[in-house]
Design goal:
This protein is α/β, with parallel strands linked by helices. The protein contains 20 helices and nine strands.
Length: about 525
Amino acid sequence: MNIDRCLGSLDEAITAAKTLGVDASAAVATRETTRTRLGFPSSAYVLALAGGTGVGKSTLLNAIAGENVSLAGARRPTTSDAVAWVPSSRGRELAGLLQWLGISEVRQHAGGALADVAVLDLPDFDSIALEHRDRVDELLPRVDAVVWIVDPEKYNDYVMHGRYLRQFAPRVRRQIVVLNRSDLLSLADTRRVAEDMRHQLQKYGAGTIDVVTTRAREGAAGIGELREWLESGVEAKRVVASRIAAEAHEAVRDLAADAGVLDGTAAPLIKPARRERALSSVAAGALAVIDVAGLERQAVAATRLAARRRGGGPLGLFTSAIIRLTGRARTSADPVDFLRRWQLRGSLAPAVEPLRELVTSTLASVPAPLRGTLAALSAPASLEHRLAETIDRSLAAEAAGFQVPTSALWSLIGIAQYAVTAVLIFSLLWFASLFVIHDAPVSSISLPYLGLVPTPVALLAATLLAGYVLAKLLGLHAGWLGRRWAKRVSARISREVRQRIADDLLVPLEQFEASRGALHQAVRAADDGCS
């Protein structure tokens, strides 16, 4: 038994349970109680006499002590608050512990064989006075050992079993059951009742617990056996440690039971194949909203616009300026802005629906304490918000690296276009001079089918044809480069969006699964460290 490891398992279980949305308040209270108890000297342990009205707790204590320690009464709740019977040699040492327990009525004895135990006579836990029950509920989690006292009439009492033995017996390592007033039963019935008590305690997870029979009022029969158990020489530090370990162990198991990971393994709530199918559907829906095909058109148009500015000559610069000034470039040739405006093209509600259905369909198989937290993960608004953030991060990372492709060929075509433009201007001027200077000499060129054509006209036609061919070559090359770039961009964005959706969108669910796994591991660690 390793107390540090045991309490460490409790810390881990509480952290995991809070992440899962499991109510961990009882476990937190247990942790605070156990750590406070460890702060007091452990050279003596605290044992409580617990039982219902009239079972003879005070009478039993008086019989053990051999003197009147606690006021006894058979028919009504007599002990209104706990009475402590402590060894005088431990009085000062136990003062802080008794103060923490809230014990004001203290009786001392010489000690002897009982020098390492402080006995508390608790109020009746089935008392008609509610404050008595509250006092018992307050003290039982803080004591180190318990003597459960029953009688033939109340050995199977619902309050005794349903509220106390079932809850506290598994959390106490040093305990014993006393069947008092056994003279009311035959020997066979006494054995039957004792065996039934042992069976019930084993069913509650308390293990095998001794049952002794006493008649505290008639010659204190059986008191010797009980006193022998009290004097058995168990080290106080060991009793305290075992009590704390048992309390922490049961608290961890309670949290694990609420989370559905107490037995077996913490298998994933959602099978990987189903999750992958849902994520693929989500990614497809998200890419449809992003409009990857539209992005490709924007990328091709942006490449052609860049090519027109570098390789279109003077006319290309002019048309490019018009496209920019009229705003056509922003709407049809700006892939970065196209990505930034993706949310204007549709809703993500259809995209997240497969994931919402996946989580919702799992709720029926999830323990009730976890359903609220898991249902919150599948809320449409929450899923849409997380998906939108994921897409924004993906597109921002890609858009930051956008660079429209270019080519040295465009510059060569641009130089040729400038030359063509110069020749075109010269041809126009030459042709116009023919109308101004009537007697200007002009040669002709013989062309097939056309015959003799004035040289200025032929030069003008040839220049226009050369400009058209260069423009067509520029457009074809820019379109080819643009389509290649567009395919790379769309492939990267599709891959990035799918990857980020797989990595980011299910982070809350993966944290949920990780917490279940951590809680399961905490149970295993508690089983090893608290035993």
